[in-house]
Amino acid sequence: MKDILTAPFMVEMIRTTTNMYAHGWDERNGGNISLLLDEAEVKEYLDMQPIHTLETGFAAPELCGKIFLVTGTGKYFKNVQYAPDVNLGMVRLVENGTRAELLWGFTDGGRFTSEFPAHMMSHVARMKVDPKNRVVMHCHPANLLAMTYVHDLDEKTFTRTLWQMCTECIVVFPDGVNVLPWMLCGTNEIGVATAKKMETARLVVWAQHGIYGAGKDLDETFGLIETAEKAAEIYLKIAHLPLKNTITDEQMHLLEARFGVKAREGYLN
Ligand code: 2HA
Ligand code: ZN
Fold first, then answer.
1. Is the pTM of this model over 0.85?
2. Does any ligand 1 atom lie closer than 6 A to the CB of residue 30?
3. Is 115 a catalytic residue?
């Protein structure tokens, strides 16, 4: 059996949580990640014997048998690199997704993130659109969060503002950004609402809270949030100044053609 701390998925998870903390996106226990793993790969490192099982509090039959590496509830991204086996856990969903077997980690008796419903329901939603999707990532980047206090939360308006802030935005997230109004976090209700929003975009802003991103790997998903957060930063730098220039819809169409992307239907004139 190989050492699980050397597994590429583990190394990447540790690097990503560390990097997100360094970006200031995950203060204290803020943020959470779930990464869908390949069973054959996991078997190189683990005997797959469940340590114990936990109730998930929801059903997700589509995920039955699937294995996820997830951050723990109350755990700090800052600390993952020093004690991955305490701050991370690997779970396999069983019994229609109503229970999760702990296969590794959470060695202090911890459990998966409080946002497990939003993560698992989002995986189900994204897999239907993109079978390659493996990551759901949540964090609290300051500029995107700040933007939800001063900008219209209408999804088309919010998306268009972000697209106009950096040339690359429409290329990186042509499907735009969906937005949920403030809701109580950690509940099945916000999970269902987030998953619904994930059907049409890989980014979902939680107003006055943070953002969810989804993608095929940790690097890509990090980059997605990073790009949106950069755009929000530019917005906050210019929002109070007289606007002299922008990226026009005509220029957006040039970007679509050049990079082979299609902007969300009805979002460009
Ligand atoms: O505490 O970010 O949304 C982790 C969170 C909850
Ligand atoms: Zn949060």
1. yes
2. yes
3. yes
What pLDDT score was predicted for residue 198?
A: 98
Instruction: Name residues whose C-beta falls within 8 Å of residue 184's C-beta, 6 or more positions apart in sequence.
Output: 190
Class of the domain covering 1-114: alpha beta
Please tell me the predicted confidence (pLDDT) of residue 221.
99
Q: Which residues of the chain have pLDDT under 50?
A: none
Distance (Å) from CA 140 to ligand 2 centroid: 6
Expressed in angstroms and rounded, the spacing between residue 92 Cα and the centre of ligand 1 is 22
Level-2 CATH architecture, domain 147-261: 3-Layer(aba) Sandwich (3.40)
The pLDDT of residue 3:
98
Cβ(29) – ligand 1 distance below 6 Å: yes
Which residues are 67's β-sheet partners? 37, 92
Give the Å distance between the CA of 130 and the centre of ligand 1: 25
Domain coordinates of the chain in residue numbers? 1-114, 147-261
> Which atom of ligand 1 sits closest to the CA of residue 140?
2
Distance, in Å, from the CA atom of 215 to the CA atom of 61, rounded to the nearest integer, reads 21
Which of 39, 41, 95, 115 is catalytic? The answer is: 115
